[in-house]
């Protein structure tokens, strides 16, 4: 089987998650990684010597180019790479706020916009995508993205809220877990004891979740009338937990929309 070139620019949080996730793929990839920080390159060069590592750009002749750099760096990267990308190369962008029509101003290639989260590192991600071409060019969705997690096509107009819910999603659960640990700690447990309790819940929860069970159903299985869970849930309701969450997701969505405007006005 012919190997597909996968070029990953940026080996930060998401780029390294892509790399780790792809290393367990059965698909024959030829992975080329581009990162400015040579100490980071050295770590991965030792770990996965079968890949190619660079700290500058040459021609991108074929395959898929995955842009794992911060939104603030992307316009500068386009200036550096746009004349080096051959027309058959598929551009894959997870960059928050970067609209397909903005990329099209610099590069006239096929483009897939995705919004994964860090769970792709363990091939447990969910990858919403939107694209400017028909079918599955280079079999990228079927053979590569589907290996990193579940995929689903969305209209691009929903990317700001998708970014807030899914891209940033792990952070909401990490914050909630941290606050639960702090609460246990304040109410007498050691930090370590509180952490074990919360971590074990988090690890076990996936077993309970499935596509045909709703969260209200799951909550009703935990609470009993006039019991401890109900007391806590009522307190959350009185403190407008729903409004707190809605505000946070609205702020994150708004930031994504602002980022998009900032990128277009640079
Ligand atoms: N993290 C997430 O969970 C997540 C989820 C969805 C989408 N995203 C998107 O993914 C992108 C990357 O996010 P991140 O969290 O991975 O950021 P990050 O940790 O800052 O990683 C970006 C990496 O790109 C490197 N880089 C910058 N300019 C470069 C260049 N010219 N050539 C090669 N490498 C270069 C940076 O190196 P230096 O540090 O040396 O500059 C850094 O290692 C962002 O656009 C973000 O919106 C992230």
Automatic annotation (TrEMBL):
Instruction: Decide whether keyword Oxidoreductase is in the record.
Output: yes
Just give the chief location class: cytoplasm
Which Enzyme Commission number(s) are listed?
1.5.1.2
Q: Please tell me one Gene Ontology term that the record gives under cellular component.
A: cytoplasm
Entries under SUPFAM superfamilies matching the protein: 6-phosphogluconate dehydrogenase C-terminal domain-like, NAD(P)-binding Rossmann-fold domains
Q: Which residues bind NADP(+)?
A: 9-14
Q: Which positions, given as ranges, span the membrane? A: none
Gene Ontology BP term (one)? L-proline biosynthetic process
Which residue numbers delimit the Pyrroline-5-carboxylate reductase catalytic N-terminal domain?
A: 6-97
Specify the pathway.
Amino-acid biosynthesis; L-proline biosynthesis; L-proline from L-glutamate 5-semialdehyde: step 1/1
> Which one of the record's GO molecular function terms can you name?
pyrroline-5-carboxylate reductase activity
Question: One Pfam family from the UniProt entry?
Answer: P5CR_dimer
Q: Which residues form the Pyrroline-5-carboxylate reductase dimerisation domain?
A: 156-259
The record lists the catalysed reaction(s) as: L-proline + NADP(+) = (S)-1-pyrroline-5-carboxylate + NADPH + 2 H(+); L-proline + NAD(+) = (S)-1-pyrroline-5-carboxylate + NADH + 2 H(+)
- Keyword set for this entry? Amino-acid biosynthesis, Cytoplasm, NADP, Oxidoreductase, Proline biosynthesis
Family membership, please give it.
Belongs to the pyrroline-5-carboxylate reductase family.
This molecule's function is given as: Catalyzes the reduction of 1-pyrroline-5-carboxylate (PCA) to L-proline.
- Please report the name of this protein according to its UniProt entry: Pyrroline-5-carboxylate reductase
What organism is recorded for this protein?
Answer: Candidatus Actinomarina minuta
């Amino acid at each position: 089987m012919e190997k597909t070139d996968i070029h990953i620019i940026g080996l930060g949080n998401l780029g390294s998650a892509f790399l780790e996730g792809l290393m367990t793929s059965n698909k024959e990839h030829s992975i080329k990684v581009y990162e400015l920080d040579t100490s980071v390159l050295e770590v991965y060069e030792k770990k996965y010597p079968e890949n190619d590592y660079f700290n500058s750009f040459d021609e991108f002749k074929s395959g898929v180019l995955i842009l794992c750099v911060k939104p603030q760096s992307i316009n500068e990267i386009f200036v550096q790479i746009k004349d080096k990308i051959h027309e058959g190369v598929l551009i894959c962008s997870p960059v928050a706020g970067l609209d397909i029509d903005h990329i099209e101003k610099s590069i006239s290639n096929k483009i897939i916009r995705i919004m994964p989260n860090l769970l792709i590192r363990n091939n447990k991600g969910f990858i919403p995508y939107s694209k400017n071409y028909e079918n599955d060019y280079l079999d990228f969705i079927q053979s590569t993205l589907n290996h990193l997690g579940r995929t689903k096509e969305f209209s691009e107009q929903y990317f700001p809220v998708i970014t807030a819910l899914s891209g940033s999603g792990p952070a909401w659960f990490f914050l909630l877990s941290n606050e639960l640990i702090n609460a246990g700690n304040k109410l007498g447990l050691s930090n370590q004891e509180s952490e074990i309790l919360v971590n074990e819940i988090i690890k076990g929860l996936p077993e309970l979740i499935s596509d045909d069970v709703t969260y209200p159903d799951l909550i009703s299985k935990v609470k009993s009338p006039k019991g401890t869970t109900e007391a806590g849930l009522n307190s959350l309701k009185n403190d407008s937990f729903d409004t707190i969450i809605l505000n946070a997701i609205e702020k994150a969505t708004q930031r994504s929309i602002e980022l998009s405007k900032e990128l277009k006005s640079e």
